[in-house]
Structure formats: C-alpha cells, structure tokens
Amino acid sequence: GAQLNFISGNQNFLSITRTVQPHAVLDTEIEGFCIGAGCSGSPGLARSLRVTSSAPVVGAAIVSPFTGTNIKDVSISNLFPASGVNQLNFPHVVQGVLSPASYSTLIGVTNTSAATQIVTFTFREEGRAPITLERPIEPRGTLQETAGSLFGLTGFRNGWVQATGNVSNGSLTGYVAYADLNGGGTTIVPAQETTP
C-alpha cells in the first residue's frame, strides 16, 4: 500500500496507509492541509505531503496556492521526487504590476532530508545587483513565500531565483506558483534541480 504523511517540519500531523491495487487510483480530499491542533496558525499547517510505497507511484495534487486572495483558480501539481540535489533553479520569477496584470510568484522549497539546511536564495534580474539572503529550513520542513515578501521586492520585477542548501548530500525539492492577481489565472511549475 501507499503511505501518505502530512508534514510540517519535524511534526508528522497525520499518517494514512492505503492499499492501492495495481493500475488503480487513490482519490482523496484533504481540506486546506490544516490538520490537528493549531490550525489557526502556521504551526498547525501541513505544508508538504510525503508518499512512500513499495511499488512505483504517480501522483498529482489539485491545489489553490494563493489562498487569502481573490484567486479562486486551482492548479495541478505533480508529485516531485526527492532526488538528493541541493540546488534548485526557478527560471522565471515575476512580481508586481504590469498593467493590467498584477503578478505574484510563490516560491516553495522543501528540505526532505533529516538535517536542518541553511538555504541561500539569490534573485537575479538583468541590469540590477543580485539580492541574496539565507533562510533555515528544518528537516522535512517547507519554506513557502512570495518573491515580493522573501526578497522585499517593490514595483515590477522580472528575473530568476536560485536556492542552494548547505548540506552537500541534502535533498531539496521545490516549485513556483504564478498568479495574475487581477486576471485570476494560476499555474504551478516544478523547480529545475541542479548539482553545484
């Protein structure tokens, strides 16, 4: 059977084991990923899902990444395998108003390893100095923040982001979610994984 674990950092909020027959589908709904005590704040918010299985699995999640906005669209996000890389590239990050659109990029990075990683994030765009900062991500924890908030961006900004963990055999996986806050469209794209 497949094992589903809803995780926020070292806390395993819920573990579900389901038996799935070969070539069958498991369809389950989880309302808001808020599981257990503390659902009113981020400590009770499960930000990642780990699926383990004795056989190969394929999966997808249908999510609404921009909760708390007027965006009601949902996007389909495939399961991203934890492949042991410690560097991710997000080749397009767009933030701010370019009339009539108002773009927002949500960056998500999950540390799938058993050790805390200090992740260096660098935002690069043509004609400007790079913006670099570090954030700790606890074991099996996820950082999820808009590019505007993470880098303190103002105005319209258009570039790319690299995230590098400090653990050489660490494991990072990630995605970006794009939205037009005025027009209402969203999509989710996996990060490009590289080894520095």
Descriptive notes:
This protein has 196 residues and is mainly beta. Helix content is 3%, strand content 50%. It is built from one helix and 14 strands; from the N terminus they run E-E-E-E-E-E-E-E-E-E-H-E-E-E-E. It has one helix at 147-151; strands at 2-8, 11-18, 48-53, 60-63, 75-78, 87-98, 101-111, 117-124, 131-137, 142-146, 157-165, 172-180, 186-190, 192-194. Strands 6, 7, 8, 9, 10, 11, 12, 13 and 14 form a nine-stranded antiparallel beta sheet that branches. Strand 12 and strand 13 (186-190) form a beta hairpin. The longest helix is centred in the C-terminal third of the chain and has 5 residues, at 147-151. 28% of the residues are buried. Residues 32-46 and 71-76 have low confidence and may be disordered.
Distance between the termini: 36 Å
How confident is the prediction overall: mean pLDDT? Answer: 74
The count of strands amounts to: 14
- Overall form: globular
- Structural class from helices and strands? mainly beta
Enumerate how many helices there are, as a single number.
1
Question: What is the CA-based Rg, rounded?
Answer: 17 Å
List the helices and strands in order.
EEEEEEEEEEHEEEE
Strand content: over 45%
Features:
196 residues; three-stranded antiparallel sheet; nine-stranded antiparallel sheet; 14 strands; 3% helix; mainly beta
Short characterization:
With 196 residues, the chain is mainly β. The protein has 1 helix and 14 strands.
